[in-house]
From TrEMBL:
Species assigned in the record: Aneurinibacillus migulanus (Bacillus migulanus)
Keyword Mitochondrion attributed: no
UniProt protein name: 2-keto-4-pentenoate hydratase
Molecular functions (GO terms): 2-oxopent-4-enoate hydratase activity
Start and end residues of each Fumarylacetoacetase-like C-terminal domain: 100-255
UniProt GO cellular component terms: cytoplasm
Entry keyword set: Lyase
Length: 266
């Protein structure tokens, strides 16, 4: 693919996000699309958005757990960018009308105090660079029709990311065993799932190290102050207007979010 075509496809995805009309899978329209092409398309869209005033505030890792890989029939993680317009706070009511076909994931967010850039980043480097961790939700949303995505589709579409909700109590890593940290997820007051940190590539710290090395191939670093979503503990859950979700973690608190239609209440 040419750089011009990367730009053209990036605009198609941005138009789908704006109009709320999803497009055909890129892997059908462009059957020769490669993973390299997909990341170039993602970067082209992010560059356009930052030129229009958006600010990069972090990165997200996707498809880290077996549950999520099985859901979308892929075998490796991906990543995307977080922009300031995508960020929400604990307890917020979010307008479901801003999404096309949204789902919710439970994650741990890392807040960095130092820059890290691959290659060669280890888990120890991540521990040294982390200021604290907090519970988080990520809302994923696909600009591809009916979530009929292959790996290249979700990569090009910014890792199917839509927004993040940050909550909990900021907690330094030295107090925690993230591999074994437990999580209980509830929807509308009813428990719907449980998981532990080991579901995320064996340990969420390992996922962040993977991310630093993966984006290092494109000359991109994880920056001090950035929010890094380390990957879903469980399979993603569909969202409807009126839903309230809560995730309670051992040792680091909880995060909650409600959803309403525009002009309505949750």
């Amino acid at each position: 693919m040419t750089a011009h075509l990367h730009e053209e496809i990036a605009q198609q995805l941005m138009d789908a996000e704006k109009t709320k009309v999803p497009i055909r899978p890129l892997t059908e329209t462009y059957p020769d699309i490669s993973v390299e092409d997909a990341y170039r398309i993602q970067l082209a869209a992010i560059e356009r958005k930052t030129r229009n005033g958006a600010r990069i505030v972090g990165k997200k890792i996707g498809l880290t757990s077996k549950a999520m890989q099985d859901m979308f029939n892929v075998t490796q993680p991906d990543y995307g960018h977080l922009l300031d317009s995508m960020m929400h706070i604990d307890g917020e009511i979010v307008d479901i009308g801003i999404f096309l076909q949204s789902k919710l994931e439970v994650e741990i967010a890392f807040i960095l105090k130092k820059d890290i850039k691959g290659p060669g980043i280890s888990s120890l480097d991540v521990i040294d660079a982390t200021d604290y961790v907090i519970p988080a939700f990520e809302i994923i949303d696909s600009r591809i029709q009916d979530w009929k995505i292959a790996f290249e589709d979700t990569v090009a579409d910014n890792g199917s990311s839509a927004c993040a909700i940050l909550g909990g109590s900021p907690t330094p890593l030295e107090r925690l065993d993230l591999q074994h940290i437990g999580m209980v997820m509830s929807k509308n007051g009813r428990q719907i799932d449980t998981a532990a940190g080991a579901a995320v590539m064996g340990n969420p710290i390992r996922a962040v190290a993977w991310l630093a090395n993966a984006i290092g191939e494109y000359g991109i670093a994880l920056r001090a102050g950035e929010v890094i979503l380390s990957g879903a503990f469980t399979a993603a859950v569909p969202i409807e207007a009126g839903d309230t979700f809560t995730a309670e973690f051992a040792h680091i608190g909880s995060v909650s979010v409600s959803f309403s239609k525009k002009g309505g209440t949750a």
